[in-house]
Amino acid sequence: MDIVYKQESYNIIGKCMEVHKELGHGFLEIVYKDALELLFRQDDIFFEREKEYPVYFRGILLRHKFWADFVVYDKIILELKCVSALTDEHVAQTLNYLKVSGNKLGLLVNFGRGELEYRRLLL
User: Is the four-CA dihedral 76, 81, 85, 86 of positive or negative sign?
Assistant: First the structure.
């Protein structure tokens, strides 16, 4: 079985591990976002931060939009959390980002524990 975007997701999770190793857990989500942005820039990894996605219902644009934490390599949603445990709601949120973006792979990463936690989500 082929893993979707294997090398790209390996690179992204590796950067997340670097950040977690140096900063540990306990910071606000924004701190981890800033650190990842720095690493992505240093390593010339293409990304967009807080990418906005419109949401349509029956062909009508709704007022509220989604903002994905990162879109990396123009094809992978990277959603960060700083919580004691990932929940079904976090998974659903990431899957919704995949739906509105048209991307195939979402990485849900939790910096809120002693050990980095992540999930690969496919749509």
Answer: negative
Both tokens of 117, joined, read 């936690």
CATH class name, domain 6-122: alpha beta
pTM of the predicted structure, to 2 decimals? 0.94
Q: Burial, 66: exposed, middle or buried (Cβ in 10 Å; 0-12, 13-18, 19+)?
A: middle
The answer to whether 2 and 23 have CB atoms below 8 angstroms apart is no
- DSSP tag of 19: H
Residue extents of the structural domains in the chain: 6-122
**pLDDT tens digits for 34-55?**
999 999 999 999 999 999 999 9
> What token pair was written down for 87?
């929940």
